[in-house]
Design goal:
288 residues; alpha/beta; 8-stranded parallel sheet; two-stranded antiparallel sheet; 11 helices; binds zinc ion
């Protein structure tokens, strides 16, 4: 295809056409290759994502270089997104390194401060042709160092979504609707009515956080109501790690990463393909 693209137009097309682009959090080269293989095979547009923790683990330049190779070799549109960043300097460093989409997460601050911090990022990111995502309300669970207890998680307020998008000019919005990061203890308690109201009032693409373990029919309902991006993180790294554990359980002497990484890659690819289909993203590469 060529080079990494901003996810703005990709997500606008998804919202208009009623599907969601799957965004996968990757932590190693093998995970990145596995989700690219999955998207390529299904001809799905793709968002590669890393959290701040992964940026600190690998360094933004290595991540960008690997993502750029994927974009060059694959025949699908690919964006590279920084997930849940609270640190302005790190966010700017990622844009400089070549990320094509960033999330400023100031949702832990009062509304006015969330607006002010998001506005600042919108200014610099838009100038660089980079997509911006911001969060309203609070998604529960654990994402790197951000821990939100169940009782502190709160739904996005529809009128605030309207004023937030107007005040900040943010092109993509993650409204908290009851999903959580990590693995759900029971079924997620998604506020579909709230989502419907937000989607009716706000035309920018909406982002579904906490995509690990949401039952298929609930994912489809969210997508139908306007969720244009679905984030999947925890489930992927569990599949990756479990496959490696199974190799060592069967053969504790194994010491060749070229062997024990193979089933791990296969597990991530299979799971990513499931999620792509669930989000209705398969076969949509040519539409974005
Ligand atoms: Zn998230």
């Amino acid at each position: 295809m060529g080079h990494l693209i901003s996810s703005t137009s990709m997500l606008q097309a998804a919202r208009e056409q009623g599907f969601a682009v799957t965004a996968f959090n990757v932590h190693t080269l093998e995970m990145l290759q596995a989700v690219v293989d999955a998207a390529q095979e299904l001809q799905a547009p793709l968002i590669l994502q890393t959290t701040v923790g992964t940026v600190k683990h690998l360094g933004p330049e290595y991540i960008v270089a690997a993502a750029q190779v994927a974009a060059k070799q694959a025949s699908i549109p690919i964006a590279l997104h920084l997930d849940h960043c609270t640190d302005y300097d790190l966010l700017v460093a990622c844009i400089r390194a070549g990320y094509t989409s960033v999330m400023i997460d100031a949702s832990m601050h009062p509304y006015d401060e969330n607006v002010a911090r998001t506005k600042e990022v919108v200014k610099v990111a838009k100038a660089a042709g980079v997509n911006i995502e911001a969060e309203l309300g609070k998604v529960g669970g654990v994402e790197d160092d951000i821990v939100v207890e169940d009782e502190d998680a709160k739904l996005a307020v529809p009128q605030e979504c309207v004023s937030f998008v107007e005040a900040t000019g943010v092109p993509t919005l993650a409204p908290a609707i009851g999903t959580a990061h990590g693995i759900y203890k029971g079924e997620p308690n998604i506020a579909f009515g709230r989502l419907e109201e937000i989607a009716r009032l706000v035309s920018v693409p909406l982002v579904l956080h906490g995509g690990s373990g949401i039952p298929e029919e609930q994912v489809k309902r969210c997508v139908k109501l306007g969720m244009a991006k679905m984030n999947v993180a925890t489930e992927l790294r569990i599949a990756f790690s479990n496959a490696i554990k199974a190799v060592f359980d069967a053969n504790p002497e194994e010491n060749d990463p070229r062997k024990y990484m193979v089933p791990a890659k296969q597990a991530v690819k299979a799971l990513a393909m499931d999620k792509i289909r669930m989000a209705g993203c398969d076969g949509k590469a040519h539409l974005v």
